[in-house]
Amino acid sequence: MWEAIAAKVDPNGQPVAPFHAGEPCAAYLGQAGAGHYVKMVHNGIEYADMQLICEAYQLMTDLLGMTPDEIGTVFERWNQGALNSYLMEISADILKTADPVTGQPFVQVVLDKAGQKGTGLWTAVNSLQEGEPAPTIAQAVFARAQSAQKGLRVEASRTIKLATVAIDIRDKSAILNGIEEALVCAKIAVYAQGFALMKVKSDHQAGNWIWRKLPVSGGQVALSARAFCTKSPRRLWLRQAFAIYFSQSRLPTCWRKKVSAGARQSPTVRWPVFPFPASVRH
Fold it and tell me: Is 80 inside any structural domain?
């Protein structure tokens, strides 16, 4: 079964199948588990991507008082632009889904207790081991751990009462635009963290590993995941990143400087008014 579903490469590491829009979705990444390592970091980026979407949802709920259905409609619109991705698409679908028993929004009925399989944790731990900061990925792991502490959170909500302050929202549209911009820029920072970690690990690892002594670039690593991964953005700045990776040697630095500059200069993606802290720190 595994042989049947696995991506195919020839003895020289060139992809045989599958392809997406004429571009290969596979690449030989090196010996001694290099491919498994890339998949681990891929999952770490996904942890962060999901957490960023959750933080955008929380801002829209707590700050703007929007309903899940309203937020789902906004996510549908965002999915037509720079934030186009599978995760954004299914988030919009879930937010617009009602519980068949109660008729309430499904996200308000489902147990708010997340689990994890470990790949995000391993990515965060390895970023500490390699001395390559991945703060957004680490914070996403912490958020899942806090989510799992359901009993503690319920008890705290009974004993700790937080003051609320009424805010006069005069331009809801401007705030939504700011959240959208923050989400795009935070995602760029997350990809920079993940690819920088892979580059540092590759430099520290003996033998042929990902970037080390192989005819494979960061762009090919990104392309190999694009068609089948749940978090991959499908257009705009990710394609800019591919071009940068294929043309530059100092990959992580080029990613940060040029893709971020491209996002700032785009008429539809500006630097955020509402930054997500862990990503901005990076």
Answer: yes
Distance CA 8, CA 28 (A): 9
Q: The CATH number of the domain where 248 resides is what?
A: 1.10.1040.10
Does 180 participate in catalysis according to the annotation?
Answer: no
Kindly state the tokens that stand for 15: 């992809």
Q: 106 is in which domain, residue-wise?
A: 8-281
| Catalytic (active site) residue 76 | no
The count of domains in the chain is 1
Establish if 84 belongs to a structural domain.
yes
Q: Is residue 3 part of a domain?
A: no
- So what's the pLDDT on residue 32? 77
Selecting among 3, 46, 96, 181, the annotated active-site residue is: 46
Decide if 273 is inside a domain.
yes
The token pair at 23 is 């571009």
According to the model, what pLDDT value does residue 199 have?
A: 84
Name every residue whose Cβ is closer than 8 Å to that of residue 145 and which is 6 or more positions away in sequence: none
Catalytic residue among 3, 8, 39, 180: 39
Q: What is the pLDDT of residues 198-225, one digit of tens each?
A: 888 888 887 667 666 555 555 556 555 5
Classify residue 9 by its DSSP letter.
Answer: E
pTM of the full structure: 0.81
